[in-house]
Amino acid sequence: YPGVTITVLSQTPVKDKYFLDFFASHNIRLIDDVFPKKHHVGFVTNWLFNRKLKKIFDNSDYIIDFANFSYSKYLDNIYKPKIGWCHGSSLFFDLIYRYHNFNQYDKIVFLTKSCCDDIKRKYPDLAPKITQIYNPIDYKNIKKKERKNKFRKPYFCAVQRLNTDKDVATIIKAFNIFSEQNPEVRLFIVGDGPLRQSLTELAQCNTNIIFLGQQDEPYSIISGALALILSSTTQIGEGLANVLLEAHALKTLAISSDVPSGPREVLMDGRAGVLFEPGNADELATVMLDVYKKRIDTKKLISNGYQNLDRFDSKNIVRKFFSVLGISEITSK
Description:
Layout: E1 7-9, H1 17-25, E2 29-31, H2 43-58, E3 63-65, E4 82-86, H3 90-96, E5 107-110, H4 113-122, E6 130-132, H5 139-145, E7 155-159, H6 168-179, E8 186-190, H7 196-203, E9 209-213, H8 219-223, E10 228-230, H9 242-249, E11 254-257, H10 263-266, E12 274-276, H11 281-292, H12 298-307, H13 314-325
Parallel strand pairs: 1-2, 3-4, 4-5, 5-6, 7-8, 8-9, 10-11, 11-12
């Protein structure tokens, strides 16, 4: 977008080559050496840090706190338009609400309409600030990156972090029930995290459960699956769940636990995928069986998901984003 320059301010050094290459190729300035290391904290260090930080903010036209309000304590006395971004569910927002000063934000962005409705109901004083913007997805590019996979046997897949905010254990338990009568089907788990060892132990009696680790572009795995399964906890919920959008883009059936706030909205109340009760392994096992035995009209669900991806189209999202900034017209390159 001509005339728009972006500076990314990170609290920790960025070492991931993907992001470094992306920033360089899109002429995005990266500042990741301002925040002091913990063992360097002192009066002079803090004074220099605050001075550098204020200079960065003062030289900006807009300040977008994109990482779940992680900069809120640094924005006092900064008189520029400030936008806070929440990537989690309404349940996640409940957990962090008391730790941040939301009065200093001019706008607060949530990812789904259902999340906005929940927050406005729970925190009516914030309602005038709240707006909704979906995460964009370049679904045409995702389809281009799809490659034919090497897996011949039928399989389900789960693509998510192996962390406490996810509930991969329910997927494993459900698959164990399912595979008792269907030993020819496998489950591929893509992702990594602190729970990998405990989940591996939970799955160790079933040789059809295979952990593939972190994959930068797991599109071929998703596209070849009987279905992609997402399971999250009822304590944290789910934001927008981009992996469900990727399943739609790759024309793969999406199955998700029905947690606040994103899955039901993405799956259109069950018209673009299958929802199951969170933590209910028996119900999920039944869904797997119905999918495998073709007792569900998966073609219709997949078609509905793919045909409604326009709501996440990057051009529409960017247009809404600039509207939130108060910029009425902007022309793309």
